[in-house]
Amino acid sequence: MNRVRELIPYFRRYRGRLISGLTSILLSVALGLLTPIVVGRAVDTFVEDPSRRTLLTYAGLLVGITLVQGIFIFLQRLLLVTMSRNIEFDLRNEYFAHLEKLPLSFYQRNYTGDLMARGTNDLQAVRMLCGPAIMYSANTLFTATGALFFMFRIHAGLALLALFTLPLVAVATKVFGQRIHRLFQKVQEQFSAISTNVQENLAGGRVVRAYAQEEAELLRFEKLNTEYVERNRRLIRWTAAFHPLLHGLVGLGFVAVLWYGGGLVARGVITVGQFVTFTFFLSRLVWPMIAIGWVINLVQRGSASLGRILEVLDTVPEIRDEPPLVDGEHIRGAITLDNLSFAWEVDGQPVLSQIDLEVEAGKTVAIVGRTGAGKSTLLSLIPRLADPPEASVFVDGIDVRRFPLTDLRSAVAAVPQETFLFSSTLGENIALGRPEASRSELEAAALAAGLGEEMEGFSNGLDTLVGERGITLSGGQKQRVALARALLKDSPVLLLDDCLSAVDTHTEEQILSNLREIFEERTVLLVSHRISTVKEADLIMVLDEGRVAERGRHDDLVREDGIYADLHHRQLLEEELAAV
Ligand code: DUT
Ligand code: MG
Question: How are beta strands 393-395 and 335-343 bridged, if at all?
Answer without folding.
Answer: antiparallel
